[in-house]
Amino acid sequence: MTNTQDIIALEAAETSRVFFSTIAELASAICERHLGTWSQRMLKEAGIRLEVTGRENIAPDEDYIVMSNRQSRYDIPVLYQALGIPMQMIESKEIAQLPLRVVASGKQILPVTIEGTQAVSARGKVDGSPERKATVTIGEPIDPTPYGPEKIDRLINVVKDAIESNLSASS
Predict the structure, then answer these.
(1) I need a labelling partner for 104 at 20 to 30 A (CA). Which of 12, 46, 84, 127 fits?
(2) In angstroms, how far apart are the furthest CA atoms of the chain?
(3) For the chain, what is the total number of helices (H) and then of strands (E)?
């Protein structure tokens, strides 16, 4: 290739990189907006009022791996509304691989405890039924780095204990 062709190829490659990363960012922002609206509507229709503690444990410029207990189908919209941060979900069949991914990612784990969603009827809020409270406790982030691949079981127990320590005695 001539020098001019090299320059054109580099410019095309850079333009493509910027274009596709911009499209990906826009798509992500649109998805987050839709998920926020969807989760807000789900909680309203189910009559769920949130009580959130521990938001100060979320640094605005930090990415986390969120781990929580599971109580009902309302847990995901509760998490979206309570945390107010972008999240990606994984399928349960991928959970076995998660500890190694967590350690490799370098991201901190944000332990979250959810209570009260199991009491919500599968049909949601019935006219005249009382509003239901779901409590969300956001724990202090856990750095997985010191555990390394050889201490994955210990890391799992630390995260589990952090989540369970905020469950009330009635749960």
Answers:
(1) 84
(2) 76
(3) 4, 4
The amino acid sitting at 129 is: S
Residue 122 in 3-state DSSP? Answer: coil
HSE-up (13 A, CA, CB side) for residue 88: 8
Alpha-helical runs (H) found in 2-142: 3-46, 75-83, 98-105
Distance between CA 141 and CA 57 in Å, rounded?
Answer: 7
Distance of CA 83 to the CA centre of its chain: 8
- With CA atoms as reference, report the closest residue to 79 among 160, 138, 166: 138
Q: Which is nearest to 109 in space by CA: 80, 149, 67, 73?
A: 67
- Judged by DSSP in three states, 109 sits in strand
Instruction: Give the list of residues 6+ apart from residue 167 with CB closer than 8 angstroms, or none.
Output: 69, 113, 115
Question: Phi and psi for 132 in degrees, rounded to 5?
Answer: -105, 145
Q: Do the Cβ atoms of 136 and 114 come closer than 8 Å?
A: yes
Mean pLDDT, consecutive 10-residue segments, the chain of 171 residues? 74 74 69 82 90 95 89 91 81 63 81 88 54 91 86 86 86 59
**Contact call for residues 18 and 25 (beta carbons, < 8 A):** no
